[in-house]
Amino acid sequence: MELYKASDEAHWELASNMLLEVVERCNARQVPLWTHEQVQITALKAAYSLDSLYFLKHGGEYVGCVFLSLGADDFWKELPIDSNSLFFHKLALIDASSAQGLGALALSEILSLAKQWNCEWLRCDCHGGRVRLRHFYEQFGFEFVDRQEMYGFDVARYQIKVLNTAPQCLVSQDA
After folding, report:
1. Torsion-angle region of residue 118: left (phi > 0), alpha (psi -120 to 50) or beta?
2. Is the Cβ–Cβ distance between 127 and 33 less than 8 Å?
3. What is the pLDDT of residues 49-65, one digit of tens each?
């Protein structure tokens, strides 16, 4: 598994299509996730920068995407801006890659990037009602922080210690 940073406007469409595929898969399983509107290009551009978009590649094929941010995050507002954290959102694997163990590989790659960037913490959030996803994060080693209502959603927050004693995360996001 490898992470590739998005580099041009066409990547918004690729990410939106991947996320739409995941929304459809989750809707078919009646598992809460994002809405179609939340993963449209305009909504993604409003919430994230192109610099934060990364693609996951495995076996020479793009298998998913994720948004990464350093320092501050809307779902962790109580943390200082210099929290020495890497946050990830909307980690998604396309249907062809589902149930192949690639989720753990993707998390390992994101954790490896957090180590490269000298981050102390890797943090994420997910829908609080997604029991299997929450179990997946916990099995990987993430610690449950809390569960609360945020922005009209039931949110479970997780974190994993990246480095025991770390300098500040690097501001460069070139992977």
Report:
1. left
2. yes
3. 999 999 999 989 999 99
